[in-house]
Design brief:
The complex is a heterodimer of chains A (about 150) and B (about 1300). Chain A is α+β, with helices and mostly antiparallel strands and about 150 residues long. Chain A has helices at about 30-50, 95-115, 135-150; strands spanning about 10-15, 20-25, 60-65, 70-75, 80-90, 95. Chain B contains 24 helices and 53 strands. In chain B, helix 4 (about 170-200) links the parallel strand 3 and strand 4. Classes of the chains: A alpha+beta (about 150), B alpha+beta (about 1300). Strand 6 of chain A pairs antiparallel with strand 6 of chain B, so a sheet runs across the interface. Chain B: Keywords: Signal.
Chain lengths: ~150, ~1300
């Protein structure tokens, strides 16, 4: 059966396509995941627009693309905040249910973090992702650990 | 793909040799007997232009048509029975099957010239399969041989007429000639047939003949002769073709292929069978085959092919033959078997020692088999299987490579990986040009209902669970990209190797070859391909971020290959998007590479620009310092290209150099008032700008002010220099229309980490609008350099903690939270107009009165004001209330708009009176009065009202610009009634007899029958209920007779002039009586309807004002009350005169009326004469009246002679309704023994005192009848 998921990176992207938080669980390759997150936006936009008005308000967008030993999966919240996770490309089936579960946990983490009354979301694009708010980062790291026992975040 | 032999990759199709189509003046090249290999596409020689012979043009067209039937391609999934046509010469020879001639004794044991067992073979002794074997089957040996030959036709004698007798001699000659030629032709065919038969190749002959020949009766016999003579098959072996057009030729080619496809398949099947036989024989012998001992490794070169190798060979051959036949599944199976066995061979270095020739060949074979398998999967739309096979191929060989010592650290490894990615990409690209589509891999939830057509069902089941991302087929751009990445890795390894060589270590194998490779060109080519494909496959609305990413890689490659100018162009474009979307982590490496490019090109201005931007993006203090040093070095050591002109670095989209924050003290200010502001310029804590030579900072406000210029001056006071927050006061801003330019202000313009400069000042405006800072320009100046950096107010780094706060104290530093969201601008508004609005009126208002409300507006402002008043009468909540307002000739029950009071000069007041009329019911009335004022210049007051109107309407759009003001006032006016009316109504029964049943006059229009309704007497009491005195000027009854009721007379009819006008004070009242005759119809009686009063009273009055005057004339109307229709059933009316004379007989009458609607009445009348009675009566004493039908009456008369004087009672008359008799059993306690039933007494009414009262106050409908004493009537008897 499929091995447990391992997250290489998680990216939260604002509705304006600004990065909120990009958390990498692989040492030394942070920049690559910025690119993965940014390029994923293309596919996310394409997919959410082509599917959006016709059917299903499902947030989960599935596999966006697989490239460079990375499989990028996408998720878009009803408020158009995007979450991208990068999984290492192994030769095994990635079950959608597991990915969706991970996404929901991440979404919830963001939701809880953004419910903080001291954050002024619209002032800075980074919002909860900025270095000032550590709880969100901690939560994301916890999720990564819980999902696949990923390595210690850098 | 070009790195593999084409033979091993192309899609195989049955091969057809076409001979006999040489062009008559054939150039020597086409005449050569060696057939063209399918790889070389030779352009057909130009068709002969001048030849008149239809056959030569036919041949030329045939060549074109046949050659265009099928193109050699790697991707050809369609299985239409197509042949690979190869044009050959007539005398083409096939390669020998074996080296020895068949006559030789050794023939049986000899092998094919390509067999590893043959010494001269390139495969000897242990080769697997060489491309030459495929070439043999695609180019040298056909499955079908088609021979085109010209059928002899005797020349036609032109002069011959059909009427001429046939020349028998000539005919005989002709036949003989034909026979001779046909025999020759048959011999030629037979010779060819012999050769093809040896190989099992089908031979088909196409005879070219003229159209005339087709109709010749002798053709059939000639054809039969030729076939017999040449030994051709009976089926599909002989065709005749006459010169036809191109489209028909294509049809011919099509039918030729259809006819010959089966023989071709048979041909390849027989080959397959042969190979299978060999394989089976071989696999039986394998069991007894002992693997050679490992010690023989040293002499590996002379070792024969291993059984695994034979298996690969046979499986591969069978796969190829199946492919020839178009049997994709069979081919796939055999290829897989061949591949699997090949893997076993690779698994052991004993079988395939690495880095040998055979090893390299086998590797190529494995790669190409992989491509074939992948391709066959893709033909069948099994995309994930295809990709998974390809991936596992790469993985396996990656593993093998490590074992072979060419692991990831070698460029060979990466070169091979790149090649695999590229082959896949090229295959997909070719496929996408025809039939291949790429799935988008959306999750199943997004594709509910959309069934993927090509996917088998079992794959869907797997898909439902999830997806193996590495098996998700994507468009070839991805694989080109991977190939480029691998090539980058290859280059990296190669460079490392080169370094190793320069340090004296051993060079890797293949280094010499690798050195010739231009890696960067290769990488660029791959990236460019990928870029194009990504562009092609991205949707139109996509922002192209993926392509930007590849463009970035391309730019980097250009940078590596030292094409800096091209790289810079890429960087410019990419940076735009990254800046806009604030992906600064990606921007930073881009900027540094860009900077490096600029350095190489020595473009100092670009370098300076980039450095400034990079300082803005600096991560920490050290980085910012280093970058500043670089910048300083540039500024010091170079001169700008465009000297004298400042270099503008626009930081609007990227991170600013300085964080800025603008705070106004109040959000709103009046015209002319000053508002204080503070502008903070700060550096975040992780940035040090102390070395930047900032010369000045220019702060530009919205239009109309001189900009504030801060000039740098080093701090003199040590104490001040140390503080984190510095304050600079700039005072009040100077508007531009003043001549005096403000001085430049000196300030310390060096920022250490976390330092903040607060510029504090004030600003006022003479015009309304929005005031803010438009731009803050930071100017660097050094030597001949001037760099301007415009900043926007309120931008900051992500890390910055700048919040809009007001600096209240420097020592200690204290800030005040302003508690507003947007402090960065201030709105300037006009001062409100000073208007005194006074509303005067005498509450309460009276109903029906035009109640005056005086609006008095006084201008206490200094401006001339144009005043317009709107009045809105709010809808009232009181029931039955009606109301309206009158204002300046306008009348409305709602809104009256735009009543102009004109321009009011300062100190002047204007007055208008508004009238409110309330009627119906008393209660509060509510009025909204809006006074709008617009300031006007005194000069414009002369303009008339006409042109002032459009100005005020247009001012709505530019409301903010026009100095206007609105004052709202709401007043509540209590309203009470002035007069109240109360009614008393009594009804009198009519004495008139009912009209007879057949009375014709009843049907006339003006017939008035009050016999039923009688007369209603209405007494109206009108009381003055107003809180003040009223003068009642007139009272009048307006008659509005209706068919049911009419006013007979009224007390006000008698003109009593001295009654009105008269003053009435609260509580005073007067009365009026009117009689109304009622004439209800029967149906109204039955329906118990009410009759509306036939008229109303109109009271005209005025209010007595406290000042002594009288108010406006008002009119109140009171409608006559609603009248009831009296309800009677059986009634007796007694008509008695009031006065009688003693001893003179006096008649009395009794009328018994049955007014029941349906029941007839049986009535007895008894006159009881008592001895004490004062009368002597003459008439019926006791009797029964005739039956009274409904609506009829009976009249009885008596003569009474009074015998006493005074008020005497008349004798008692008893009227009994027998029908209503009380049954004895129901007697009320009195046991009656009488048989004669008395019945119920009927009411006897004295018409003189018939007051049937009905109080009609407040529409009450309870009719209270006052019963009268029977027989209580009296007569005054006079002597």
């Amino acid at each position: 059966m499929a091995p447990p998921l391992r997250l290489n990176a998680v990216a939260f992207i604002s509705p304006q396509n600004h990065p909120i938080l990009i958390r990498t669980f692989e040492k030394g390759d942070e920049l690559k995941y910025h690119y993965v997150a940014h390029t994923s936006l293309d596919v996310i936009e394409e997919r959410s627009q082509s599917n959006g008005p016709t059917k299903s308000n499902d947030c989960y967008l599935g596999l966006l693309y697989a490239m460079d030993e990375i499989a990028a999966y996408g998720y878009i919240t009803p408020l158009k905040m995007k979450i991208v996770i990068a999984l290492p490309l192994t030769d095994s089936v990635v079950r959608d249910a597991e990915v969706i579960m991970t996404f929901k946990a991440l979404h919830l983490a963001y939701y809880h973090a953004s419910s903080n009354p001291f954050i002024r979301l619209h002032d800075t694009p980074a919002g909860v992702g900025s270095a000032k708010w550590k709880r969100f980062r901690r939560k994301v790291d916890e999720i990564s650990r819980a999902v696949g026992g990923g390595s210690v975040p850098s | 793909m070009n790195s593999y032999p084409a033979e091993l990759l192309v899609q195989l199709a049955p091969v057809m040799f076409v001979a006999g189509l040489d062009l008559p003046p054939a150039p020597s090249t086409t005449a050569s007997t060696t057939p063209q290999s399918p790889g070389q596409t030779q352009t057909p020689p130009p068709a002969p232009t001048k030849t008149q012979d239809p056959f030569s043009s036919l041949v030329a067209r045939l060549r074109d048509a046949l050659q265009s039937q099928r193109k050699v391609a790697i991707w050809a999934p369609e299985r239409t029975r197509e042949f690979q046509m190869i044009l050959v010469g007539k005398d083409v020879r096939f390669p020998p099957r074996k080296l020895v001639p068949p006559e030789d004794l050794a023939y049986a044991s000899a092998h094919s010239p390509l067999s590893p067992l043959t010494h001269s073979s390139p495969l000897y002794p242990d080769g697997l399969i060489a491309p030459i074997w495929i070439r043999k089957h695609t180019a040298l040996v056909p499955s079908v041989f088609v021979l085109f030959l010209r059928l002899f036709e005797a020349p036609v004698l032109h002069a011959r007429s059909p009427l001429d007798p046939s020349d028998p001699e000539h005919e005989r000659d002709k036949t003989e000639e034909e026979r001779r030629r046909d025999t020759d032709l048959s011999a030629e065919v037979a010779a060819r047939k012999k050769i093809t038969n040896e190989r099992g190749i089908k031979l088909t002959v196409v005879l070219l003949a003229t159209r005339r020949m087709l109709d010749d009766p002798s053709l059939d016999s000639r054809l039969t002769f030729i076939r017999r003579q040449s030994g051709l098959d009976s089926r599909a072996a002989l065709f005749v073709l006459s010169p036809v057009g191109t489209s028909e030729l294509n049809d011919f080619a099509r039918s030729l292929q259809d006819a010959l496809y089966e023989p071709a398949v048979e041909y390849y099947t027989s080959h397959s069978k042969r190979v299978r036989r060999k394989r089976n024989r071989h696999s039986q012998s394998v069991s007894s085959y002992n693997p050679p001992p490992l010690v023989s490794m040293g002499v590996a070169s002379t070792r024969p092919l291993r059984p695994e190798g034979w298996t690969v060979r046979y499986e591969y051959k069978m796969a190829c033959f199946a492919e020839f036949r178009g049997e994709d599944e069979v081919a796939l199976k055999h290829y897989q078997d061949a591949y699997a066995t090949l893997m076993i061979m690779f698994g052991s270095t004993a079988i395939l020692p690495p880095r040998t020739k055979r090893w390299a060949e086998a590797k190529v074979l494995a790669d190409t088999i992989n491509v074939k398998i992948t391709k066959l999967y893709l033909y069948n739309h099994e995309r994930s299987l295809a990709l998974s096979h390809h991936n596992s191929h790469m993985r396996r060989f990656a593993d093998f490579s490590r074992g072979w010592g060419i692991g990831e650290e070698t460029f060979e490894y990466w070169s091979w990986m790149a090649r695999q990615h590229r082959v896949l990409a090229e295959l997909l690209e070719q496929g996408s040009n025809s039939s291949l589509t790429f799935p988008t891999n959306p999750p199943p939830s997004l594709t509910v209902g959309a069934s993927s057509a090509g996917t088998p069902v079992e794959l869907d089941a797997v898909r439902a669970l999830g997806l193996n991302p590495s098996h998700a087929l994507q468009h070839p751009g991805h694989y080109y990209y991977m190939a480029a990445r691998c090539t980058e890795a290859r280059r990296e390894r190669f460079l490392a190797n080169e370094k190793g060589i320069s340090q004296g270590t051993n060079s890797a194998p293949g280094y010499a070859n690798e050195k010739k490779v231009n890696h960067l060109t290769l990488i660029l080519e791959l990236y460019t391909k990928s870029y194009e494909l990504f562009k092609k496959h991205s949707s139109t609305m996509s922002q192209g971020r993926l392509t930007l990413w590849i463009a970035y890689r391309i730019a980097r490659t250009y940078y590596e290959s030292e094409k800096f100018d091209i790289a810079i162009r890429f960087f410019e474009r990419i940076a735009k998007t990254y800046r806009r979307e604030k992906w600064k982590h990606m921007l930073r490496p881009l900027l540094s590479t860009w900077y490096a490019c600029a350095q190489k090109l020595n473009d100092v201005e670009l370098m300076a620009t980039l450095l400034v931007e990079m300082i803005g993006y600096a991560q920490d203090v050290d980085e910012s310092r280093t970058l500043q040093e670089d910048l300083l070095a540039i500024l010091k050591n170079s001169v700008p290209v465009s000297a004298g002109k400042p270099l503008v670095v626009d930081l609007k989209e990227s991170d600013p150099l300085l964080d800025t924050m603008l705070v106004f003290w109040t959000p709103e200010v009046r015209v002319g008032e000053e508002v204080a502001f503070q502008l903070s310029l700060a550096t975040p804590t992780n940035m040090d700008l102390s070395a930047l030579p900032i010369d000045s900072v220019t702060i530009t406000f919205s239009d109309g002010y001189y900009p504030v210029v801060l000039q740098h001056s080093p701090p003199t006071d040590v104490q001040v220099a140390d503080t984190v927050v510095r304050l600079v006061k700039v005072g009040k801003l100077v508007p531009e229309d003043e001549d005096e330019e403000p001085e430049e202000i000196c300030a310390d313009l060096r920022w250490k980490p976390g330092e903040r400069l607060v510029v504090s000042g004030s600003i006022s405006s003479e015009a309304p609008g929005l005031l803010t800072v438009v731009s803050i320009t930071v100017v660097l100046a050094q030597n001949s350099w001037t760099i301007e950096m415009p900043h926007e107010p309120c931008v900051s780094h992500e890390i910055s903690t700048l919040v809009p706060r007001w600096l209240t104290s420097l020592q200690p530093i204290r800030f005040l939270q302003l508690g507003r969201n947007d402090c960065s601008s201030v709105v300037v508004r006009h001062r409100p107009h000073e208007l005194a609005v006074e509303l005067s009126h005498q509450a309460p208002a009276l109903l029906d009165e035009e109640y005056p409300i005086v609006i008095d507006i006084t201008n206490v402002d200094e401006r001339h004001l144009d005043v317009v008043v709107d009045v809105l009468l709010q809808p009232t909540e009181v029931d039955q209330a009606a109301q309206y307002i009158i204002f300046d000739d306008q009348r409305s029950s709602g809104l009256i708009k735009g009543i102009r009071l004109g321009t009011i000069a300062p100190g002047v007041s204007a007055t208008k009176t508004l009238y409110l009329v309330g009627s119906g019911a008393p209660g509060d009335r509510m009025l909204d009065i809006s006074v709008q004022s617009t300031s006007v210049q005194p000069g414009s007051t002369s303009t008339g009202d006409d042109d002032a109107e459009p100005r005020s309407s247009s001012s709505l759009s530019a409301h903010a610009a026009v100095d206007s003001c609105e004052k709202l006032q709401t007043i509540v006016i209590p309203t009470s009634g002035a007069l109240t009316a109360t009614y008393d109504v009594v009804y009198r029964r009519s004495k008139n007899a009912m009209p007879a049943l057949a009375d014709l006059s009843t049907v006339e229009d003006d017939f008035w029958d009050d016999s039923y309704g009688g007369v209603a007497v209405v007494t109206t009491r009108i009381e003055c209920s107003a809180p003040c005195g009223l003068v009642i000027e007139n009272l009048k009854l307006h008659r509005q007779d209706n068919p049911l009721a009419k006013v007979l007379d009224c007390s006000s009819d008698e003109s009593n002039d001295d009654m009105f006008p008269d003053e009435y004070f609260p509580g005073d009242e007067f009365c009026n009586v009117s009689r109304i005759s009622l004439s209800p119809r029967e149906e109204q009686v039955l329906g118990e309807e009410k009759i509306t009063g036939p008229g109303d009273y109109e009271v005209v009055w005025r209010r007595m004002l406290p000042a002594g005057g009288l108010g406006r004339q008002s009119t109140t109307r009171f409608a006559l009350p609603t009248l009831m229709i009296p309800q009677d059933e059986l009634i007796a009316l007694l008509d008695v005169p009031s006065v009688a004379k003693l001893h003179v007989s006096t008649p009395i009458h009794l009328t018994v009326r049955n007014r029941h609607s349906s029941r007839s009445a049986n009535v007895t009348v008894t006159l009881d004469l008592d001895l004490s009675d004062a009368f002597i009566a003459a008439g019926l004493r006791n009797g029964r009246l005739p039956i009274l039908l409904p609506g009829s009456e009976e009249k009885l008369s008596w003569n009474l002679i009074p015998i006493e004087c005074g008020h005497v009672k008349i004798p008692r008359i008893k009227v009994m309704d027998v029908r209503r008799a009380v049954l004895p059993s129901q007697g009320v306690g009195v046991p009656s023994t009488e048989v004669d039933v008395e019945g119920e007494a009927v009411k006897v009414v004295d018409v003189r005192a018939d007051w049937n009262t009905a109080r009609m106050q407040s529409a009450g409908d309870s009719v209270v009848a006052i019963p009268q004493q029977d027989g209580a009537s009296t007569i005054l008897v006079l002597p």
